[in-house]
Amino acid sequence: MMNKIPQDPPLSPDTNDSSPLALPEGGDPPHVDLRSEGGDPPHVVHRRTRVSIHAVIPAAGFGQRFDPGAGSASKAKQYYELGGEAVIVRTVSALLAVELLGMVWVVLAPADQEGQSLLEQRFAACHQRLRIARIGGAQRRDSVLAGLKLAKESGANWVMVHDAARPLISRAAIERLISRCLRQGHGGILGLPVVDTVKRARSEPNDPLIEQTIPRERLWLAQTPQLFPADRLVLALERFPEVTDEAAAIEKLGDPVVLVKGEPGNIKLTYADDVHELALRLNQTANPLLRVGEGYDVHALVPGRALMIGGVRIDYPLGLLGHSDADVLLHAITDALLGAAGLGDIGTHFPDHDPKWRGVDSRVLLSKTVDAIQQHAWSIQNIDCTVVAQRPKLLPYRDAIIDSLACCLRIERQAVNFKAKTQELLGFEGRGEGISARAVAMIANSVS
Ligand code: MG
After folding, report:
1. Which one, out of 46, 237, 325, 357, has a CA that is 20 to 30 A from the CA of 224?
2. What's the CATH number of domain 32-285, 1.10.10.10, 3.50.50.60, 3.40.50.11740, 3.90.550.10?
3. What pLDDT was estimated at residue 64?
């Protein structure tokens, strides 16, 4: 039963493969079709097999071991507020930031209406990739299996399971796991080699004595996420219900499971003491290097063009003239981001003499810019922007524009501010000859 390679999907284990999925660790992530370029959720494209990875977060438990003390004891640990944000919100946020993941499924207890409302409200802008299912079971395995089956029905052929109570998982660690698993063609988990000397105690729980020192050389501590071919994980969990993590079930099937080095910061909130450790780690990541950038753009209003502002079609007889769709707001934001990251400007990256960008949806340009920002280890903190137009009135479109921007930028709606102003009939905007936009972006270095 050893080393049986799962048959589905048939990925090449060839590490010299030049396909987008055959990556060295730390290399560029595999190519992803972005939602903004298509309409479907992101998926990784392999030359022979479409790999679709969904995440499943089991969150139906009540954390019997977790009692943070006065006033908070009744809260399940995934709803404990860490730095002003529920643990589960941080966890979901971390997974949604990984564009290699298609859907993110959160499996709640059937009665957990409050949890569903919290997530729906916090992730209103990214609802297309977040799925909440109140079908969790009594055991972790039941919730994972329920979410896994939904993911599979929605087209996932790989599933990444992650603990709701590990909020500090980094994008880099997730991408490292995906890269290794897809390259090798079998499942894997994040883990840490044991560094302390390990003792086994005799059976007396209250006054333990050492029975044996265990050689630690080959010992690892398992973390999540854990990533497996969906078919194999369904089979494993159905056949072996009594396991404490998904890898254990896969091991029992006899499939290989690769160990990928995780991060000490990927702590699971289990005991009340963990709150302090998580808060310390969060504080370290809460003091990052910050950069600010500004962007400005102008386009002329002409007949016969669609008016696009912030990725939203505005009902108006005139549209903006340009090589692309001339979305003045997206161009200003793109320039603000490039400016903050010290990466030049929109004209350098997407020259208006390049036929490739003729008529292009500017959301594609912004998505590519967000990719570049993230590949340089920056994360977007917030965007503030202003559109100056005498006509049309843009305030009725405010919510749609903010939703659109939040999705393009892959950040929370609350991190996007949009303002519309007239020009008091002065200047080219005031005369209705054109529209201008300004944006400010703040970015921070991503700390893992
Ligand atoms: Mg422009």
Report:
1. 46
2. 3.90.550.10
3. 62
